[in-house]
Design brief:
The complex is a heterodimer of chains A (752) and B (216).
Chain A lengths: L1 E5 L10 H11 L4 E6 L14 E4 L8 H13 L3 E3 L3 H10 L12 H5 L19 E3 L4 H10 L4 E4 L5 E4 L2 H15 L5 E4 L4 E10 L2 E13 L5 E7 L3 H14 L3 E9 L5 E7 L6 H6 L4 H10 L12 E3 L34 H10 L21 H8 L10 E4 L1 H18 L5 E7 L6 H9 L3 E4 L2 H10 L6 E3 L16 E6 L2 H13 L4 E9 L9 E2 L3 H11 L7 E7 L2 H4 L1 H22 L5 E5 L4 H5 L4 H13 L5 E5 L2 H4 L3 E13 L2 E7 L16 E4 L5 E3 L5 E4 L8 E6 L10 E4 L5 H4 L8
Helix pairs in contact in A: 1-9, 11-12, 18-20
Chain B lengths: L2 H5 L11 H7 L14 H18 L10 H5 L11 H4 L7 H14 L4 E9 L2 H13 L7 E2 L2 E12 L2 E6 L4 E2 L11 E6 L9 E4 L2 E4 L4 E2 L1
Classes of the chains: A alpha/beta (752), B alpha+beta (216).
Chain lengths: 752, 216
């Protein structure tokens, strides 16, 4: 009996070839085991239990047709083949569309039905698929997915690789890398599931399940790979549907279902691999030799049974002698400034992926990389606002005030506050002046029943100049007393202290009569979320100190609590959890200080779509929870932050020059820069341009870079955009969603 | 009664530390509880523990173990009796304190939890080091007997009579599949003096009688 085993890479994220070999040697001591590899850098070729090594050139150098024919000859000659590589398995399925009795890998139809992330074939198993979104959607939608899932998301490659992306800039960087490595835009974002990882490994021949085991990871590498585990039987509730599914798929070969079990005991399926996992020999040690069972099922030759084990296994690092016929190759010279290291894919699997794309073996085919995904949509008001402008008469770069969009935004927020208010608790909006101090927006806030929130005395005076009354002002932030001598003489609505010294100073100002405020409160920083603002509650000492400090507040002022965290950064669900966490701390403060909380001031940093485009049931429920937890709260001040300002301005810019390669625009220089779009790295902006017919169209993702006018390396205002054909110098591009911190934090640079 | 009180009782030297002899030795040990001065000092400390747990839990299921507790207060010698205001100020807490606080945290989350007492196998080498460490801090080490130790944790109700065992010091759920050896759980006793308590609890397919030692 001669068995070929591929996938011998044995680095930190190993392939299963060596494990399969060890198990086959246990089951068939006399079989001839031939290791197949595509690089002499894969250390598994030196595993001593291999009788022979069939070393091929890396995938980018291989003649696939000749290699396919060579394998066919081996199989026809009676040899068996067990693949340890997903991509090789997919390629073999294309070479042998009808299968081959000695090819112990799944067929093409079965592979199509286990494509991740949806893994169609899972229906019937007691598992769920974590939420996901393909990255061919617009950046606007992808950002929304990340916010919805609290930025606990994984960006995953189509075959291998998964990287946790906790922010937009990291997502963009990883997307660029994975798309380049795997030569495809068909990546996907998947929500993280917290829990313990476990797998079911199986083997089947022509649809008949031959054996399977469950394995729980007990030690995990930094890459999340198994280092130790325990092996047990698969329960009947899983086994019955699994048996049916494998029959339907006419599955041949090894396989693995990778799952996470959450605290509520639910199983989440991450992927189904068309091969044995790298820990395969761990199960053999535990007494279940699946590679041998597979060979036995295919040949009818009885395998030697393994000794019953105690159900647990672990890995160790083992040095083995190098085979004399395959001496170690030299380590490549490192690139300038770098350090030498081994390749992640020495056999050139990315090159195989690229070739399989071209051969249409993998989804997408040769032309799919040109896909720029969906174009994002914009509200009608934005288009109306742009149509109202005469860009021929606008000197760029220029901020465009989106008048009807702004009016609509404030109107919605006012209606929402009205709807959420109850007889017991009034919900009041507050406009955060720092998000955009444009007088037109402050006036809109005033006319829409907002209060004004300032983080400095200068901001309060700006609000007063626009028409706010002192009793409509809220003072916040760590530097609120700057500049000196500008504290309003009249009573303002509320002051929230950012630190223990701030609280002390505020109490002194109240006692001296320098400051008059209806409500005095504290901004709290709940544990577990990093922030530099507010009074920390993460140690018992600071909590005790806060409790004692609150006792020093004058009795004739009302007491309030403020909490602020950017929802766009931590995610929507996380923000509402923080709200509940804040309520819990407020209950403790009321209980321990004897002071009742009359005002809750909650913010902020909401992404506009999360605030304006959804129903308000979350907020309505939150008001009820606040009333239940803190019965004396008469007012909830809501600070949506940039949700108010961001949609209200756009940045218009002109193309200065374009550079083409193979007839496509690869780079364009524009007269705007990151000085006007400082938030470019933090969230996607919808970009519009006017077509020759005068219609405004949003641009899709593409291969062009928009370079800012500055002589700064990082001045790239769009890294991947599809510019319309015929774009030329003088054309106007409009970046929407620039009315928040883009506007207020823009700076003068490169203007002499 | 506190862990320290019972620890100060003379622990008779035994020959081979078999499970039964150990459980007899620790039979009279109650589960540890944290005391309250009845004043603001303890009230503030207890409120901080409960509110902090709420924050730390985030969106995780209520059945998630309070892993933050041993992270903030690693396992180590603790003098007894212990009050809330003392517990929050300590650098380290022993298993009795971890258990007693976790018990309160689970209860505050609305999860039923009962104190659990364990007898675990280690090695003489390990227990000698622990004994030395406890001695340095002048804290009795009656929880050590040869290569076997007394330990505390929480029996957390999953559903009905089904429980999981939380090792509040290690920050992990004890595996019901035990096969002996270093670190193995030899015996467990779950305490619940209430009349409504069931006679047995189910732990990973095993039936554990309440209020008495069960050999694992």
């Amino acid at each position: 009996m001669k068995i070929y085993v591929s996938g011998l890479y044995s680095g930190g994220n190993p392939q299963p070839g060596v494990g399969i070999t060890r198990s086959l040697r246990q089951g068939y001591p006399d079989a001839t085991l031939v290791g197949v590899e595509y690089s002499n850098r894969s250390s598994g070729i030196h595993w001593p239990e291999l009788d022979e090594v069939w070393l091929q050139r890396p995938w980018d150098e291989l003649n696939l047709s000749a290699h396919g024919e060579a394998i066919r000859a081996l199989l026809d000659g009676g040899a068996l083949w067990i693949s340890g590589s997903d991509l090789e398995t997919m390629w073999l399925a294309s070479v042998f569309p009808e299968g081959h009795a000695n090819l112990l890998t799944p067929n093409a139809a079965a592979l199509a039905r286990i494509t991740k992330p949806q893994v169609e074939a899972h229906e019937g198993l007691p598992v769920q698929i974590p939420p996901y979104i393909p990255t061919d959607r617009s950046d606007w939608d992808l950002h929304a997915f990340c916010r919805k899932h609290d930025w606990r998301v994984w960006l995953k490659g189509p075959y291998y690789d998964a990287v946790r992306t906790r922010s937009w800039d990291s997502f963009e960087a990883v997307r660029t890398t994975l798309a380049k490595v795997w030569n495809t835009e068909r990546l996907f974002l998947q929500a993280h599931v917290t829990g313990y990882e476990e797998s079911v490994m199986l083997c089947a021949y022509e649809g008949e399940l031959l054996g399977c085991v469950r394995m729980r990871k007990r030690e995990i590498t930094e890459e999340g790979k198994t280092w130790a585990g325990d092996v047990s039987e698969v329960d009947e509730a899983f086994l019955t549907p699994l048996r049916r599914i494998l029959r339907e798929l006419n599955w041949t070969g090894g396989g693995e279902l990778e799952m996470v079990r959450d605290a509520d005991h639910r199983l989440w399926l991450l992927e189904m691999n068309p091969r044995f996992p790298a820990w395969v020999h761990g199960a053999t040690i535990a007494g279940v030799n699946l590679p041998a069972l597979l060979v036995e099922g295919a040949t009818g030759v009885a395998a030697q049974r393994p000794e019953p084990g105690r159900g647990e296994f672990t890995r160790v690092v083992v040095e083995v002698p190098v085979r004399s016929e395959f001496p170690l190759p030299p380590l490549p010279e490192h690139l300038g400034g770098g350090t030498g290291h081994s390749l992640k894919h020495p056999s050139g699997l990315p090159a195989l992926a690229e070739r399989l794309h071209k051969l249409n073996v993998l989804d997408g085919g040769d032309n799919e990389t040109s896909s720029g995904g969906d174009a994002p949509t914009v509200p009608n008001t934005m288009v109306e606002d742009l149509l109202a402008q005469d860009f021929n008469r606008i000197e760029t770069p220029a901020w465009v005030f989106m008048e009807s969009t702004a009016a609509d935004t404030f109107k919605r927020a006012a209606a929402m506050a009205h709807t959420l208010s109850t007889n017991q608790t009034r919900v009041t909006n507050a406009y955060s002046i720092k998000t955009n101090p444009d007088a037109r927006l402050i006036k809109l806030a005033l006319d829409s029943g907002f209060m004004a929130e300032g983080i400095s005395l200068l901001e309060l005076h700006k609000a007063l100049e626009v028409g706010f009354r002192p009793d409509q002002l809220i003072l916040n932030g760590p530097g609120k007393w700057w500049p000196e001598g500008m504290i309003p003489k009249e009573q303002i609505h509320a002051v929230f202290c950012d630190s223990a010294p701030d609280l002390k100073k505020t109490v002194a100002a109240l006692n001296s009569g320098e400051l008059k405020a209806k409500i005095v409160g504290v901004r709290i920083r709940t544990p577990h979320i990093p922030s530099r603002f507010g009074i920390a509650l993460d140690t018992p000492e600071t909590f005790k100190s806060l409790v004692e400090s609150i006792a020093t507040l004058p009795e004739d002022t009302g007491f309030g609590v403020h909490f602020h965290m950017a929802s766009s950064n931590i995610g929507v669900k996380a923000w509402w959890r923080l709200f509940d966490s804040m309520l819990r701390w407020c209950q403790s403060l009321e209980r321990l200080t004897g002071r009742t909380i009359e005002v809750l001031d909650i913010g902020g940093g909401w992404f506009p779509d999360d605030w304006h485009s959804v129903d308000h049931s979350d907020f309505a429920k939150a008001v009820k929870r606040a009333q239940a937890a803190l019965p004396n709260v008469g007012q909830i001040i809501s600070e949506p932050g940039k949700a108010m300002a961001q949609p209200t301005m756009a940045l218009a810019m002109r193309v200065l020059e374009t550079q083409e390669e193979d007839g496509e625009i690869t780079e364009a220089v524009v007269d705007a820069s990151i000085a006007e779009l400082p938030m470019y790295f933090h969230y996607p902006h919808r970009v519009l341009t006017q077509d020759r017919g005068g219609d405004w169209k949003t641009l899709k993702r593409g291969k062009s870079q928009l370079m800012g006018r500055l002589c700064m390396e990082h001045d790239v205002v769009a890294a991947n955009i599809e510019l319309p054909e015929g774009t030329r110098a003088g054309d106007v591009l409009v970046f929407c969603d620039a009315g928040g911190y883009d506007r207020s934090m823009s700076y003068v640079f490169g203007r002499g | 009664m506190y862990l320290a009180e019972v620890e100060t009782r003379a622990v008779q030297a035994t020959e081979v530390p078999e499970v039964t002899s150990c459980t007899v030795k620790w039979d009279s040990w109650p589960a540890s509880t944290i005391s309250h001065h009845g004043q603001a000092c303890c009230e503030i400390a207890r409120e901080w523990m409960l509110a902090n747990d709420f924050s730390q839990l985030g969106d995780a299921a209520a059945l998630t173990g309070p892993r933050w507790l041993p992270k903030k207060y690693p396992w180590g010698p603790s003098p007894w009796p212990m009050h809330w205001c003392e517990a929050v100020g300590r650098k380290k807490l022993d298993c009795g304190a971890h258990q007693a606080i976790s018990q309160e945290l689970f209860t505050a989350r609305g999860v039923q939890s009962r104190p659990a007492q364990f007898v675990q196998q280690f090695s003489e080498e390990a227990t000698r080091h622990w004994g030395h460490k406890w001695g340095e801090d002048q804290v009795p080490a009656g929880w050590i007997d040869g290569d076997v130790i007394y330990h505390e944790g929480c029996a957390v109700t999953v559903e009905g009579d089904e429980i999981k065992l939380w090792d509040a010091s290690a920050g992990w759920w004890i595996d019901p599949q035990q096969s002996g050896g270093y670190g193995a759980l030899l015996s467990v006793r779950i305490l619940d003096p209430s009349a409504e308590a069931p006679q047995t609890l189910s732990w990973g397919g095993r039936q554990l009688a309440l209020n008495r030692w069960n050999t694992v």
